[in-house]
């Protein structure tokens, strides 16, 4: 401290480094105590270092190429200046290319007065673009010096080497094209040039991959026709032009292209700089006026733009006064406000827009034509439909066009539905008179319903909401079918006549074509085809006959078969019996079935009076008595089975010196059936009585006290030589009907009820035999199902078998046509019932994974509680994501594509 008091100066000397901060520690002591303090020295920066170039490697480019100038090729440093303040000052720019700096999204060309910093070079914002002609110069350079704000470096040269172009390689030279808004500019080699060193510009082809967004390229000789390809020769010949769209609002435009010489190719982009100057006047192209209902508002406006009109944001509102004419004046202009063009002439004065006021229409449309429809037509997909056109349904309104007249469906048809034949969609609510004029609406006939009539209720309204009273549109058509599906004829009959029956609407004419198909019989050898194949039904005619001639060849041969089919209906629908099988037998063999059911043979023979009781030597053969608990009716083609405790009876044929030959012989695979016309001696035997040989008896066949007559039909089994007899039922054609004996119970009569007046009981047909009928809960629930649907476990089911479709089409049909969904399977009991209900053949159900996420769900929305996969876990080889379920063999579930593949039947269901 004494030294300091005596005038000693203590100084800090900096070492001239670039460290801007330093420190030292002072210690003060009195010999016993010490005190230390740290002194911090802040060095003021001084820009006394010159910037210098660390790296200047130059650049090598291809002809026409753009290359970045980065810190890899050009790097400068200054010890006391950051890179952002070290500037490259340009003394000269390249002569064979452009030096460009990226500012935002664009590249700006640098001139001799411009500069850039080392930081910009580090950020890859500086590039060199070669624009010189090929072969002219192979070297280029620019001159610069460094400046840090105070100090300056010596001049430096940055050299750029242009590679020689190898033959086949493509070099491109592209410059921006200046174009005015809405203008047309011809492309030249100054702005677009490609070369490959072969001097064949016609082989250099430009292909536009992304066309300009606000214009197009075209040949000058074909204005208005946009092109996507052109050659370098076309550019050199000034044949290619760019046309700008006057409606564009962006100042830049570009298109992408690929140029190729057949061996190599290069991608490129061509840029157009648009001068946003409006040089084209607006044109008034439409001034047709407006018709407005009295007191209403219409789209229009004041001081509005063309876009406002296009977006319907301008309205004209009428004040409700009595005037019928209104108008306003207007002028059209753009930003230049120089007027507008009308008919090619310049207008600066306003023009008028006229509005015509229409008095309010309070009358509803009138239905001027409403005729029942009958003409059924065969559609392309095999369905039948009746087209609804303006010939049958016509509505008119003096103030409305046909496309404004709306036909609203108040009640849908009971059995069929309406379909738009143009779109293929279901018509749920309404259609227009225009659609009727174009004949696009059709009533689709439901093939699963036996009804031959249907109707719908509708109203007609206009745009103002005036609605007329409801009307009924009726449909009444006819069906044509054969009288029976099978015929058996002997050669000796020579002629076979088939009855063709028409049902339903008989007031109009209809036609059907008869087609003959050979099976084992040959046309021209076994039968002759009638030359008239077209059958015409005149109004009121319900039955026509078609005849064919049977050829008697006197040869012993097997039964020969051919088929007769009904095809190509006109004005009618083919019924269920659309095919008949004809069996031709040799002369004298068997019985002829004509106009009757071959399964119920005709009984002929001598009638035994009902008052004649069995005498000695005669046998009274009666059906076995019915049980005490239930009454079972036979099917009509065999004897009823006796009770378990009753002895079995049989008829044994005795020797007879008189031989009776069978009138027909029929083989059904396991039995041989002989049909006799005559009387034979027989013996009755049972299991409890000894044999009684030598007794003969005439047979009288009765059924519950009512006798029958006819031939006995004997059956000889291949496994049992014993001949048995079965008694056929009496047909309705042989005598008065007995209401105590119903028709044979066949599958077609399932659900039919029969009242037996003898026993005062009601029976129902289950498809096999007649059973006593009594109401139960299931029957009461079944009453809720529509006609043609089957009740099971709280649901109504319908099986579609006529058309085989994909899952998606089946789902749509259930939803739109039947107002239901594809069937859901909740338990194994339901699956077993559905498998039997579907005839044990494949059908669609509602399970699907249409979203492809492995999440299976029912079309009806029920939870998935039961599965019956063919393979567990389910696997699918399909590449698609949309998977649906088909019930296949053994009621196992198989995965199929929802929209493609083979069609199948389907089951629809709905809750009761």
Automatic annotation (TrEMBL):
PROSITE patterns per record: C_TYPE_LECTIN_2, CSPG
Gene Ontology terms, MF aspect: carbohydrate binding; metal ion binding
Principal location listed in the UniProt entry: secreted
Superkingdom in the source lineage: Eukaryota
Intervals holding CSPG repeats: 50-147, 168-260, 364-461
Protein's UniProt keywords contain Disulfide bond: yes
Residue ranges of domain C-type lectin in the record: 792-898
Family per record: Belongs to the FRAS1 family.
Function: Extracellular matrix protein that plays a role in epidermal differentiation and is required for epidermal adhesion during embryonic development.
Protein name (Swiss-Prot/TrEMBL): FRAS1-related extracellular matrix protein 1
